[in-house]
């Protein structure tokens, strides 16, 4: 009955979600799978969570669409132990083999199938070193009593916990059964339970087709708090009240997003607050955004991150980049959309402040990468490269300013109509940069080569650096901050700094405007007036601790060490490690802190900090 029900569901979904994506040939350099011959259309997982062994074990049943009548299925795996592979609902034995390890990509799992094969079942277990899985010790959780598990599948880490076609070009529906110890709640990027049960067995359904990088699992001592009929938050008990307060405006954001670009198509929108080791600010897993606790400030000043992850429900989850070379299609669109949501909910002045900060970030990123670096183009080249190595703010911010330029040229009314049509045309599909450009030419540029050249479309997308027609952004709020900065530098008296109405973003800009070298007197004066070393705001801590590390400010040394030990979000701690590594005393603090903290960091965080420290060792 279970297989028959799955086949009925799949038949229904083929009607609901046209498989237009299957018609295109995709060259994905980050996958070893034969995605242009056969594709997974549905995944059925049955997994047991073993906290003691730090492994997942069970089976993955794959439903196939064999477009080219091939007799071979090739899947992506990395670090998986394959126990058995069978075909069909009768579980017939077949031949299979793991290939040689390929750097960054893992080992291809080649399975003999027939042209009639519709179902393949793989019995397997993960490794304790699985790159996607973070096993968090009780002492590193908010509750302090139970362990915690969470996954992070982007970019190509889904293959470390599920044998599948780990390419964003392949979309699939999925169902899952997850077995956890007593007292734990399991949640996924799917329809979720809201409270623990006595059996420890939880079932999940994701009826909309998603790419593999949006496969997500978390297990912990979690509570749930409803925020509206379709929004809510999961967190550990000590965090749930603060999280519910911080994200109380989520429904307003959803409504603002819908008013811009059409109905929210995923049913529920919830958030999960993870332990501090989470390497990102947030991850847009469908129906359940994973987010760092470092955005809980008590003043809701960092909830633009939630606007960003929510926007991914359209740009990224609904319309997805077909390869990671097209990453800007996810993040540039989402950053632009985030700004529009923020403007609708917080006002244009507030959104303009965020845009100016992004403007400064863009130029700083290009300067650090060197203007002619090919990674400053929107379309990336990832042949024989780890997507993490090309990761930067370019797809986010340069992508956002490209779309902002188009909005300013064509006007909001026409631009918004275009975006609505784009999201509708490619819903539940994965697209390439070239598909977007072709759609842009027909539906907005009206096949006008002169206009395309005038707007520098090719330069924006395929060439490095920042085109001359990038919007210049100036915020009155940040101008006010700059005046306070100038007054302080002239008098060294913090009383001249007018912080009335300042949010985290004002503070960030103030601290970023300070010169690289500051005297002990100025550092002490600032710290005494504003208690920066003792701040509980993670963004302010990053900015201040980076300054303190750069200037070897001894009074902040212990707080810096504790911050680096507690927080795993790469964007918050990498700048501090970088500054510490520039002089012997700081390098000693950095290395000692990293060595004691790295077991609690996610693999992505370890890779990022190792890169910082390795540069010093190589010199």
Structure in words:
This protein has 619 residues and is α+β, with helices and mostly antiparallel strands. It folds into three domains: 2-220, Immunoglobulin-like; 318-462, Neutral Protease Domain 2 (Neutral Protease, domain 2), CATH 1.10.390.10; 492-497 and 512-618, Serine Threonine Protein Phosphatase 5, Tetratricopeptide repeat, CATH 1.25.40.320. It contains 19 helices and 21 strands. The protein has helices spanning 2-16, 237-246, 250-261, 304-311, 328-346, 348-369, 394-410, 412-425, 433-443, 449-454, 457-462, 476-491, 504-513, 520-530, 538-550, 557-566, 570-580, 584-597, 603-618; strands at 39-50, 55-65, 72-77, 81-87, 92-93, 96-98, 107-112, 119-125, 133-136, 148-151, 171-179, 185-188, 201-211, 217-220, 222-226, 231-236, 269-273, 282-283, 288-291, 319-321, 429-431. The strands form five sheets. The protein has a seven-stranded mixed beta sheet, covered by helices on one side. A five-stranded mixed beta sheet has the order 15-16-17-19-18. A hairpin with a 4-residue loop joins β1 (39-50) and β2. α3 (250-261) packs across α4 (304-311) and α17 runs parallel beside α19 (603-618). The longest helix has 22 residues, at 348-369. The radius of gyration is 24 Å and the shape is globular. The N and C termini lie far apart (64 Å). The model is unreliable at 1-22 (pLDDT under 50).
């Amino acid at each position: 009955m279970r297989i028959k029900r799955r086949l009925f569901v799949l038949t229904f979904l083929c009607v609901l979600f046209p498989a237009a994506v299957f018609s295109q040939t995709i060259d994905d350099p980050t996958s070893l799978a034969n995605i242009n011959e056969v594709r997974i259309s549905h995944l059925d997982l049955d997994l047991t969570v073993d906290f003691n062994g730090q492994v997942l074990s069970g089976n993955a049943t794959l439903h196939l669409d064999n477009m080219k009548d091939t007799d071979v299925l090739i899947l992506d795996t990395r670090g998986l132990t394959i126990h058995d592979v069978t075909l069909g609902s009768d579980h017939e034995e077949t031949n299979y083999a793991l290939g040689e390890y390929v750097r960054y990509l893992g080992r291809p799992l080649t399975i003999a199938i027939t042209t009639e094969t519709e179902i393949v079942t793989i019995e397997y277990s993960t490794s304790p070193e699985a790159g996607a899985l973070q096993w968090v010790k009780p002492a590193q959780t908010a509750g302090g009593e139970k362990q915690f598990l969470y996954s992070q599948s982007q970019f190509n880490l889904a293959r470390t916990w599920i044998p599948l076609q780990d390419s964003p070009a392949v979309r699939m529906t999925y169902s899952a059964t997850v077995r956890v110890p007593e007292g734990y709640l399991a949640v996924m990027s799917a329809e979720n339970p809201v409270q623990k049960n006595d059996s420890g067995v939880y079932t999940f359904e994701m009826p909309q087709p998603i790419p593999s990088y949006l496969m997500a699992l978390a297990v912990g001592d979690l509570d749930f708090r409803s925020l509206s009929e379709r929004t809510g938050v999961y967190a550990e008990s000590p965090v749930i009240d603060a999280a519910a307060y911080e994200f109380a405006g989520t429904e307003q954001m959803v409504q603002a997003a819908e008013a811009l670009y059409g109905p929210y198509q995923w049913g529920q929108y919830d958030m999960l607050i993870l332990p501090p080791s989470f390497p990102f600010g947030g991850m847009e897993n469908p129906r359940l955004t994973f987010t760092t606790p470092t955005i809980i400030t008590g003043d809701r000043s960092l909830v633009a991150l939630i606007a960003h992850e929510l926007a991914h429900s359209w740009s990224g989850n609904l319309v997805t980049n077909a390869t990671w070379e097209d990453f800007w299609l996810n993040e540039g669109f989402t950053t632009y959309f985030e700004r529009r949501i923020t403007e609708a909910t917080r006002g244009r002045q507030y959104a303009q402040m965020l845009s100016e900060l992004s403007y400064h970030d863009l130029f700083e990123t290009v300067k650090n990468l060197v203007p002619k670096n090919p990674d400053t183009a929107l379309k990336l080249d990832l042949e024989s490269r780890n997507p993490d190595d090309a990761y930067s703010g370019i797809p986010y911010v340069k992508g956002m300013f490209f779309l902002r330029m188009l909005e300013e040229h064509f006007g909001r009314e026409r631009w918004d109509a275009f975006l609505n049509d784009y999201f509708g045309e490619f819903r539940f599909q994965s697209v390439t940069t070239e598909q977007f450009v072709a759609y842009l030419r027909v539906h907005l540029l009206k096949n006008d080569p002169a206009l395309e050249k005038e707007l520098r479309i090719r330069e924006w997308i395929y060439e490095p650096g920042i085109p001359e027609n990038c919007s210049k952004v100036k915020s009155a709020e940040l101008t006010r901050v700059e005046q306070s900065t100038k007054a302080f530098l002239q008098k060294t008296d913090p009383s001249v700094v007018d912080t009335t109405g300042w949010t985290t973003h004002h503070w960030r800009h103030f601290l970023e405007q300070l010169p690289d070298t500051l005297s002990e007197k100025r550092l002490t004066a600032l710290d005494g007036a504003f208690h920066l070393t003792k701040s509980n705001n993670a963004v302010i801590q990053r900015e201040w601790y980076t300054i303190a590390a750069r200037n070897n400010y001894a009074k902040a040394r212990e707080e810096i060490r504790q911050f680096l030990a507690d927080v795993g979000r790469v964007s918050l701690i990498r700048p501090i490690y970088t500054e510490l590594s520039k002089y012997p005393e700081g390098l000693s603090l950095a290395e000692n802190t990293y060595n004691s903290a790295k077991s609690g960091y996610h693999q992505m965080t370890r890779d990022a900090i190792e890169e910082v420290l390795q540069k010093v060792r190589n010199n």
